[in-house]
What we know:
Elements: E1 2-5, H1 9-21, E2 27-32, E3 35-40, H2 43-70, H3 76-92, H4 94-109, E4 114-116, H5 117-124, H6 126-161, E5 167-175, E6 178-182, H7 210-219, E7 221-228, H8 234-243, E8 247-250, H9 254-262
Parallel strand pairs: 1-4, 5-7, 7-8
Antiparallel strand pairs: 1-3, 2-3, 5-6
Amino acid sequence: MFSLFLDNLKETDMIYSYLLNHKSNDFTFDKKNDSIIFSFSSTSTFSDFLADLIIDLFEENLIREILEKHYCYFSYEEQLSILKESLNIVNDNSNSKHDLVYFSIYDYLSSESSMILSGFIRFRLKDYIEVLEYLIDLSVNSFIVNREYDRFIDLLKDYIASSDSNADIVHLVYLKKESVLLDEHKNTIPFDDNILDAKYLSDISFSSNDFCLNTLLNLLPKKILIHSLEESDVFLETLTKIFGDRILFCNSCDICDFYKIHSSSLNVEN
């Protein structure tokens, strides 16, 4: 027999309801006040089940507590966004975290016949909680980068809206993750590769095409015709966000055909 002691009747009812929905032939259970009594034959199988129970019922609250404790300087709305990102990252690492909980439970059941669940989570699952803290930290860093990225995009959009264009149309050929800029007469436009003059570049490095973006921001063409010879990526998506309806896409014209035919022999770097 194994006794699982809970903090209150609400928690007991929650776990009992979980057990009713996850019945197994590997163990039996009965509710008594603020505890649940189990009988099981396989420590390994029961440990595996109990690990699932803890993760399913308590993990999100643990993540919320970590956010409130260590990242209270974020607004409520920001914490909700971080929580969503954290849940995604944590779920992507389900196997490793489950193993940590499983082995802690298995070791405990080898010598004990009862467990105060809240105390076990707090004091026996420190490795598991440290993994959660690490994964939450990754999600916080991702949130900050995305927030700064959005601010950067908004800043550039405001700059474009308040500035005059210096060109009617610019062709952008995107090949092998590199860019070529052509003017309206299809002559190559050299990139401004002086980092001191690249005042519009973000602190966020999203591709190897920063100088292409800087050149476009200096020219501010009324239309940017993108001849993309491969699938869209973060650079093309960023250009679309920045320049909006100034962006047009083409994959079938004389420029596209030329670069498709000669792509293997062309050096696309400016």
